[in-house]
Amino acid sequence: MASVSFKQGEAKTLTLTVTEGGAAVDLSAATLEFAVKKRKSDTSYVIRKEDGDFDKTQAADGIVSVDLSAADTNQVPWSYVGELKVAFSAGSIDKSADLTVVIEQAVID
User: Which domains does the chain carry?
Assistant: First the structure.
């Protein structure tokens, strides 16, 4: 399982690369959603980003970015679970493997 780490309250850009069989997946026409929960079974998200939040400049090469604000990452230190959902116009929906999103305690506010 892949993992990313952020400090509490740290604004960062998360860049994700989507491949299938080692080849880039063209995400140009796809609708994207990124969500993070404390546990998979939780009903509420701690971070949620929808299609309009993504930078799709390199989407044809399978690369997309999403900005996480300081408010997004200002969560209780924990090892959260995240997922990227990719919906294609033909109706197929792909979900990424789980992504561990670690929020580390900030030393300085």
Answer: 2-104 (2.60.40.10)
